[in-house]
Write a structure and sequence with these properties.
Shape: globular
Number of strands: 6
Helix content: 10-25%
Distance between the termini: 36 Å
Length: 107
C-alpha cells in the first residue's frame, strides 16, 4: 500500500517567513524519516507489520520541525482517496510512503 500525504501550512506555516524553502525541506526530510519502514515509525524503531498510520502521529512529527508554526490542513490519501483520521494497514503489510505534497504559506 502506498500512502500519499498532503500537508498545508498555513499548512505548515513557517515561523520565519524568510525561510519557507528551508522549512519545506526539513518537513519533507522529517516525513521521509518517519515513514522509513526500517528506522521510522512513532518510536523510530521501524514500522510493525499491520500498524495503522494515524493522522495525529504525522501531525506530531510536523509540529516538531523547526520553523513550523502550525498546520492549516493535513490529509492522508491512498490511491488519491482521502482516508480521514487514519489509514488501515493490513496485518501482513508494512508502511511505505508515496509522495509528500507540502504547500508552504507565509503571512
Amino acid at each position: 500500500m502506498r500512502l500519499r500525504l498532503a500537508a498545508a501550512p498555513d499548512p505548515p506555516s513557517p515561523v520565519d517567513p524568510a525561510q519557507p524553502g528551508a522549512v519545506e525541506q526539513e518537513v519533507i526530510k522529517s516525513l521521509a524519516a518517519f515513514f522509513h519502514p526500517l528506522t521510522g515509525g512513532p518510536d523510530n524503531a521501524g514500522w510493525d507489520l499491520g500498524r495503522d498510520v494515524f493522522l495525529s502521529d504525522v501531525a506530531a512529527v510536523l509540529e516538531h520541525v523547526a520553523g513550523v508554526d502550525y498546520l492549516k490542513e493535513l490529509q492522508l490519501l491512498v490511491n488519491s482517496e482521502l482516508q480521514g483520521e487514519y489509514v488501515a494497514v493490513a496485518d501482513d503489510r508494512i508502511v511505505v510512503a508515496g509522495q509528500f505534497r507540502v504547500n508552504m504559506v507565509t503571512s
